[in-house]
Amino acid sequence: MALLTAPSITTFLTKTMGDSTASYQSSSDYSSNSTPATTPSTTPDFVLALAKHGLKVTNLNAAHDLMIAIAKDAGTIMLSAEHEFLIAAATKNNTSDLVTQYDSQIEGMVEDRLRTAFPSFGFLGEETFKHGTKLADAPTFICDPIDGTLNFSKGVPNCAISLALTLDKKPVIGVVFNPFRGDLYTAIKNQGAFLTKTATGTSYKLPLQPVPAPMSSLRSCLVAVEWGNQRKGANWDLRTSIHKQLLTDSEEGGAFCKSVRSNGSAALDFCYVAQGILDCFWEGGVWVWDVAGGWAILEEAGGIVASANPGDWDPALEGRLYFAVRHAKRDEQKAVVEELWGMMGERKFVY
Length: 351
Fold this sequence. Notes:
The chain has helices at about 5-15, 45-50, 55-80, 80-90, 95-115, 150-155, 235-245, 265-275, 290-300, 330-345, and strands at about 120-125, 140-145, 160-165, 170-180, 185-190, 195, 200-205, 220-225, 260, 280-285, 305, 320-325. By secondary structure, the chain is of the alpha+beta class. The protein has a seven-stranded mixed sheet, with helices on both faces. A five-stranded mixed sheet has the order 9-8-10-12-11, sandwiched between helices. It is globular. The two termini are about 20 Å apart.
């Protein structure tokens, strides 16, 4: 299996994270009472990228604030649905129609408010997606109204609305809100990532540990793996094989990772990696709306996104193949990615 050379990974990480010394801030920058940065980014290349689309950093800040307000309103809708789901679960064979109703209601509200405020921007939503639609270079809002619908329908408090704004097919704003826990994750490119506890209004800069714990191999990692709806065929065989290898003792050829978690929401898995409570998330088969918001948050928290398939350090946002790794030293991030790729050998997901 051919892997990228050291210069290739260095180029990739420099592009996505900047100089390594900049990614290790002092603990004083991570106060438990810290608030999101308000100083506009002055990174020349990003300012030029914005200007190409007739935008300024102030436009991003305005979009970010609106997306947060919308996410909170969507959260209120989700919370109000809890009792209705309990009643429906007791009287119906399934609640899929009710899930669809709330998905559509929330996405309709999101699209209406975003298009009203930013009529020239594109919009890509899970509920209104038409097969064959491709993400454009132009500014585009992406919406997953309820990521983790099975959890939502069962009353499991691990689901979220996920919003993103993309530019040149890359996420530049991410907002992911789990109203059941009151966890609001946000990020703007070059302005950092934050977790706000809405019950108290307190914000924390991500990752929560300014100096990350060592992560030299999968042995030290808590890994997220989801299961999806494709439960047969080559993709399923690969998914289950790697899951078993991750858990198996090294004496029997496994990685012997700390453990594996399946949380039921790719958006929140990305945010948990950004936060540092998960070390990595390996996933194939989910969609752009599942990951776009979390991707922006993870990168601003010093993490990286490689492909779930071996050899690709620069996966497309729409590629459906993601390996998210938390903030750590670059060589440690690289080692963990290549270790899992090595477990896959010549096998790959095909979507």
